């Protein structure tokens, strides 16, 4: 079933469910079904960097990071340094390696 066709959790009670795809829809479905299904597997082809929608202080990440100051800093710093910093911060929130989610590509690739 495609996430577009999902309307209710009925029928998934005590089932083993595999959600294919780790985009917003797949993640939302996996969380919702994890409350009523016996087991939920989130399947991804190559892993991904999981980012919170909100940052410290409760601000939306995109609105807080995409600013004139942020753009200026990104232009001044080497891309590897930015990737290292972002990957470190993301790994503090969720251990990507422990869950088999750490991809081979860098976070800004």
TrEMBL record:
EC number assigned by the record: 1.-.-.-
One function term, GO molecular function aspect: NADP binding
Keyword annotations from UniProtKB, A to Z: FAD, Flavoprotein, Monooxygenase, Oxidoreductase
Cofactors, names only: FAD
PANTHER family according to UniProt: DIMETHYLANILINE MONOOXYGENASE
Family: Belongs to the FMO family.
Protein name per UniProt: Flavin-containing monooxygenase
Organism (species): Panagrolaimus davidi
